[in-house]
Every structure is written in C-alpha cells, then in structure tokens.
Amino acid sequence: MSLPALSDIRDEYDFLDADDRYRLLIDLGRDLQAMPDALKTDSTLVRGCSASVWVYPMRDGDKLHFLADSNAAITKGIIALVLTTVQDRTATEIVATDIAAELAPFDLSRQLSSNRTQGIPNMIALIKSTAERHLVSPPS
User: Fold this and answer.
1) Domains (ranges, CATH) in the chain?
2) Which of 18, 19, 88, 106 is spaced 20 to 30 Å from 12 by Cα?
C-alpha cells in the first residue's frame, strides 16, 4: 500500500488531539510496505534510535524506493512519515529535499517524547547519504 501525500497527512494531523496523533502515526506505520526479515541486518539498521529501525533502499529506474520497519509502532509511523517526503523520487530530488523542514509543521519534538524523536536526524541522514551514493553511481 502506498503512503498518502504529506499534505494530506498534515491536514489530518492538525485536527487531532495527542492520542489520535499517536494512532495516526501507528496507522502510517502499518501502511508501510512489508520489509522482509532477511533485510533487517546490521547494515540496514539506523544508528542512534531508541527503537530498532531498518531502512533498505531499492532502485527503480532512476528513482529510489525505500523499505523500512521498526520494532516499535510509533517509531515505525515516524519512519513512514519521513519516507513520505522522499519515496519514489530520484536521488537528485531526495538530496535537494529538506526533509526536516518538510516535517517541521508536525512539530514532532513537542508532540512526542525525546526518546521517540531522537533518531529522526539519523533516519534523515541515512536516507540523504543513500541518495548521495546513488548520485555517484547512477543506474546503468
């Protein structure tokens, strides 16, 4: 299942109270494409997250598609939200995207505990570095 547009998520998020915002994040995480357990390795693990988060990039022509998972429901929703900003875009588009600015209207650091949000910069950094590597070695 594909994720909704970030603007649609933001519109819904703005009208919800704190408990419903948690539920929305959990639902986003449930909507992520399944990530096979075989891809959940040390090399796909995002460092610095309080929960385990795995991100695996796949190339689809000139676009990047990411599989992701977490062992915590809300964290899985957070990575789904992050991926919504870059999913199925070219490496050039991903590198040019200010993911943190795209997520700023959600004000996650005020909505969630610091434990839940501490890994977001690391998720973003991993996605950006992946896109930068794909710029260096474009598809054949």
Assistant:
1) 6-136 (3.90.1010.10)
2) 88
